Amino acid sequence: MALSFPVSDRLAAAADEWADQRMMEEEEALEVKLEQALLEIEHLVSGATEVTFELEDGGELVRFAPSDDLEAFLASQAGSADLAPERLLALHVDLFASVFLEGDDERPPNAPPSG
Fold it and tell me: Per its UniProt entry, which superkingdom is the organism in (predicted)?
């Protein structure tokens, strides 16, 4: 089953930041950020190491066919949260949208040692 969800403002902003940091075209950066987020989600649930998706409607809509494991996970969460699986996937993607972005060098006071 393929799921579709709109590109959120948070995801678009993360892609813009990625494009600025890597001197990339915005569309390419959006694809990279989507792949990173979807792969993180898919890997956590199913152990997958590859994902495929499509950007439609001029880069405004994501179409993704989750693995059977992720599909079952989203269906289970959907029942508990009273949300559609597409909405849950979009929320998970938003959570991972900023992964791998270079932030400021300031570490939170409760962060473990980094060296």
Answer: Archaea
